[in-house]
Model the fold of this input.
Amino acid sequence: MPVISIKTLPLDEDEVRTPDILKKLCTTVSQELNYKPNHVWATWEYIAPHLYAVGNYSVPFQPQSTHAPLVRVLAFEGRSKKEIGALLHVIARVLAQELKVDLGNIFIEYAEARSGKLYDGGQVVY
Done:
């Protein structure tokens, strides 16, 4: 049940279709984890122009080499460091390819949901 949350500055929607990227991301991650595609969720939010600064530099649109896309992955506890690393690499690779940004310009945080501290499917998950 990874939930992938992405934040970027506005993109050129004529060149980049976020709904298609979200679908590809869910499909690719589900294949990597051997999950059903509907067990991987992804959302995308835009940061308003000039409301994301890197040092003293703010921009109106998502550049290729600065202002990294900010990604947070929430997943149930229990994965090994190797599995987490593979998951992070898959997400970075898909985003770099689809957004045409350098792999070094993607920031991903991995957070674990603990047993008994997550509600899904009508119940607390243990």
